[in-house]
């Protein structure tokens, strides 16, 4: 494995590979890992390098003409980042992307869940719903993705209770209305509690058949003269170096915005953009609208937190913690024509929360040392019982909090007018920026509102008092809601069997363009409510298996990384 920097290359270098992966984020690096140590020559091309660079990051700029918008009188809740990552809440919508090896994993929190069985089904009340395969067909890939992410078992419904060391008590909530739902969090191996950073996959890759080219932005995808097959890629660095990469197979792994943008901007042969003969590229843009549904204050916080917190299990000598929340039942979705939604607890900790005081003391923070020591002493009972619950019963720590709220992430019904097009504004390479028009429809707003009311009703009915609906729900006024994107853009190059409403086929190859594949959330046929990373990796692993089979059939043969015809531009010294 070699990491090369295009900025140090000779001008007009010509490179060859069997498979070129465009984008070194979780999807691209997973595919590279799956193809490592095969006879397939792989080149991973990334716009950035190993470190954050402000000029490279500026290439993510978009023209945003849709949601999210600030509604008068609505509370701003942000994307949920806290502490040292709180600044990420202020990144403009659809620009929270990372142009360096590791991609979005540099700023994620590790939150993972698999899509539900019903997400794969065709639902008559939701247009364009349904995947070209069922969840069971990718279960093996999901399990492989879970192992890569250092997760526990792929169980996210109430079946998890049978595996937990100390499961939550049965509250008696109607399963016809609400269902338990769990999330888990990917962490680095080796005891590091940081979310998994995929840049380590690149650093640790020692496969001779995998190379990396950094600071290389793809400026155009070139097709053959008939517009039916991938031909080459044009790449450039910000300092003016350029290269051509020739490959039999190209996999776009640029994310929900850039995959569509690059197809649309590559219009030298196909005037409307590659794969866009039916005008589908960039359409059906969804994210996960996030909003607050209900709040607990006062004594109700402790009761709610005891039921909706972290619960642990030990699997293969590792302890994994799952966060418990609730989702709309499939039955109520079908009866009332709603989208899939799930809500999770978020506590606002008090200033005298003892665990924060302990952390500051352990870090030697002198400014608050006396106050923190006093807080710890006054809360010794909570600390002792919390540690016992954590170590023995594998429960989440109890906190002193001023509020516990349930925030929702909702599935969106597909809307062809929610879309990405090309802006008149251009980036440093002269490529049109993405013009993003994200729309939040009535169906998903009504789904969230109904969900919030059901939560209050059921909590009160089973004796979990103190919940209050968010103001926008209580007053039945969506204009007072604060909907925020979760940086999960999806479905813009969606997968399907019908080219009239999809961009790639069930194998993730662009309809009618041999050798051009797409990975990442942009190929999701529907967005579901779950965080996308686990599903992104499962589909990337599934695609990797297909690519191995494709190249084993003799479609391509391994060739040198540097084109023999351009040996004067050998990169071995770069």
TrEMBL record:
PANTHER family: PYRANOSE 2-OXIDASE (PTHR42784:SF1). Its cofactor is FAD. InterPro entries: FAD/NAD-bd_sf (IPR036188), GMC_OxRdtase_N (IPR000172), GMC_OxRtase_C (IPR007867), P2Ox-like (IPR051473). Residues 18-289 form the Glucose-methanol-choline oxidoreductase N-terminal domain. Belongs to the GMC oxidoreductase family. The keyword Flavoprotein applies. It holds the Pfam family GMC_oxred_C. Keywords: FAD, Flavoprotein, Oxidoreductase. One of its GO terms (molecular function) is flavin adenine dinucleotide binding. Gene3D superfamilies: FAD/NAD(P)-binding domain (3.50.50.60). This is Glucose-methanol-choline oxidoreductase. Residues 417-540 form the Glucose-methanol-choline oxidoreductase C-terminal domain.
